Every structure is written in structure tokens, then in C-alpha cells.
């Protein structure tokens, strides 16, 4: 959840404005606004949007949780403070540049200073040409193994959960998180588009590790005994099956950069294996 909060701050998304509530709003007001906007953004509605609906769910989850809400508020304060510091720095820099320009104008009126500037320019040019002549071209394969950077893969453990739709029973990502956390720690849950069968809905679940994902995949969902004694026992009986989506690897959040790095790492690995 910390990663999601940081991303919201980075993208300048104000979840208070999106949820149409004030920072001082109580939990009931936040919940009312959430359900009202759910009717607007639900993917099954004409005005619906899967992106907006997922953002709405995430915003509600943050503001309805005291710990998440505190972290979000703290990050907003830090960002505002950083922006203020940046503006002050920009103003100080502008004044400094103005002072330097004024001093240079005065110096330009002196023939002696002009001669010194020419001499200084020639010296810098000689040093630059000398450094270019001395520069040697090295490839990655000329470096020792100690200097080769190996990237740590970020694995995603994703499953798709099938859930029976029951009239007057609303299942959202918060409830699914509570139910499926019995298998292990979850990074995030998002609603997936429905198939042709209107009897079921689907959720994409990202677990933090492979063992948790395997536990969820190997469980027989015809039995809800695993949730006996919990407050989600009845809701867990609506689960039908869990299938793997992917167990992918990535280096960054940019697919183009990932492809470049993938080719680079492969070429380095092939080169090392042939030595």
C-alpha cells in the first residue's frame, strides 16, 4: 500500500478531491461518498471506467484506514514543504544569476579582463583536447566481473479469483483482501472485467511471495473450512476457483526500458558463459 500511496502523490492525485470529501470528514461521510461514486464509475455502468473505479476503491481503502490515511497526509505535507523549498531555491538562484550577469557586464568594459578571459578560454580548450586524445574506449566486456551490474528481478505473483455473484451482497477489493490474506501477505487486489457469464465476477490478486500464491492456487474452494471462525466465513463460501495469471519479471515500470535491460543482461550472461 505504501507504493500505491507514493504513486498517488507522484501523479498529483488528490484522493480527497476525487472522493469529494474534506480531510476532516468522518468515516461515515467517506463511506457514503464512496458508495455514491461507485454507482457512477462501476464498469457495468454507461458512465463507468475501470481506471476510475480502481482509483475510487484505492482512495476509499486509504481514507478508511487510520494508518494509511496518516501516511498519505504526511506525504502530502512533505510534498508541499518540498515545493515551497524548491520555489525559494529557484528565487535565490535567479537572484544569484542576476548578480553574476551584472558583474560580468562591468568586467567586459575592461580590456585587461577581456584578455584574461581569452587566455582562460584557450587553457580550457587545450585541457579538453588533451583529455579527448587520452580517452580510451572500453566495452562492458573489458570490465572485470566485479564491475558488471546485475539487476535484481522483481517478480509478480498474480492469480485470478472467480467469485459467485449473490444478490444484495457487495464484494469489493477490500473484502477480497481480507478473505485471501489467509494464504499470505497481499500487495494489491483489483477488480477484473466480467466474462460473458453474469453469475460471476473476477479479481486479480498480487501476492508478495510465491508460497502464498501457491497456497491460494492449490486450495479446494468447494470447502470453506479454512475460514471457520472468521468474520468472512459466509463471504468465503462464494469463492469458486483461483487460477494463475502470470509470474513475470521486470526491472522497471517502463516496458521499453525492461526490453533494453533484458537484452543487455542476456548479452552479458552469454558473454560470461563463453569465457
TrEMBL record:
UniProt keyword list: Chaperone, Cytoplasm, Nucleus
Cellular localization per UniProt: Cytoplasm; Nucleus
Predominant location category: cytoplasm
InterPro entries, A to Z: DnaJ_domain, DnaJ_domain_CS, J_dom_sf, Pre-mRNA-splicing_ERAD
UniProt xrefs under SUPFAM superfamilies: Chaperone J-domain (SSF46565)
GO biological process terms held by the UniProt record: spliceosomal complex disassembly
Cellular component GO terms held in the UniProt record: cytoplasm; spliceosomal complex
CDD domains found in the cross-reference section: DnaJ (cd06257)
Residue ranges of domain J in the record: 14-76
Annotated protein name in UniProt: J domain-containing protein
